[in-house]
Amino acid sequence: MPAMLNIVQTASPPPLASFSGVALDFGARRVLNRLDLEIGHREVVCVIGPTGCGKTTLLRLLTGLLKPTEGMVMRNGEPVAGPAADVAIVFQDYARALLPWRTVAGNISLALEAGQVPRSERQQRIDVLLRKVGLSAHAEKYPGQLSGGMQQRVQIARALAQEPKLLLMDEPFGALDAMTRQGLQDEMLKLVIESGTSMLFITHDLDEAIYLGDRIVALRTGPKPDQSSVARVFDVNLPRPRDQLATREQPRFLELRRAAFSFIQEGGA
Ligand SMILES: Nc1ncnc2c1ncn2[C@@H]1O[C@H](COP(=O)(O)OP(=O)(O)O)[C@@H](O)[C@H]1O
Ligand SMILES: [Mg+2]
Q1: How far is CA 116 from each of CA 54, 101, 119, 167, 192, rounded to the nearest angstrom?
Q2: Domain segments of the chain: what residues?
C-alpha cells in the first residue's frame, strides 16, 4: 500500500495536450504519420513546415472536429471527444472569421453567449477584453470599417473571451504587414503569459516561430510509412519577456535561425 501511495503522490499531471502515435489519412493519402507531441501547461509551441504538410490538420485534431486514423489525441489525459469551450482558435482569414453584420462588441459577445455568460455580465467582460486588445474606442464599429490588424485583434479578443486553457493560432498574422505583425506578436505574448494559457502557434515564418516559442516543431510533407511527421524539434531557450530588438539580436536567436534555415534548405522539412 505505501508503495502505491508513493506512485500517486509523485505522478506528474498529464500534459495539457498530447499526440501519441497519431496518423491521419485523407482517403488513400497519409498526411500525418507517427506523430508524438506534448503541449505543456503555459507552453508556447510553434509549428512550422511547408504548405500542405498538415499543420492545419494537426490543429483540427486538437479541436476534436477531426479524428485520428491511428493513435490518440488527448487533453488533460482524456481522449479528445469533440469541441471544448476551453480550446479557442484564431484563423488567418479574419475577414471570414468575423460576422460582418455584428459590431466589434457584438462579435466578442458571440463567445460569451456561446459560453452562456449571463447578459448582465457580458458588457463588462467585453469592455475588459476590448481594453486588453486596444480596441476600446472601436466597440461599435463593424469589421469592414477596421484595418486587418484591428480585425485580427477582434478575433483574438473573441478567443480570449472563452478563457481558454489552449489557444490554437493558425497562421494568424500571415496576412498582415510587418509592423502590425510585430505589434501583435508582442500583445499576444503578453496576453498569453498573463492569462497562463498554452498556445499552439502555426506559422510560415521561422523568425516568428523563434520569437514566440518555447519549442518549435518542424513538420515534413508526405512522411514515409516508417517516418514521423515531426522532422525536428528545436528548443528555443530564449529568456522572456522577449523584445523585438534585443531578442532578435541575441546569439541564441541567430544560432537557432541558422540551424532552422539550413535544416529547411537541406530539405529536412
Ligand atoms: N478535408 C480534407 N480532405 C482531403 N484532403 C485534405 C483535407 N484537408 C486537408 N487536406 C489535404 O491534406 C494536406 C494537409 O493540409 P493542411 O493541414 O491544410 O496543410 P497546411 O496547413 O500545412 O498547409 C493537404 O495536401 C491538403 O490538401
Ligand atoms: Mg494551413
Answers
A1: 33, 21, 8, 20, 23
A2: 38-86+164-269, 95-163
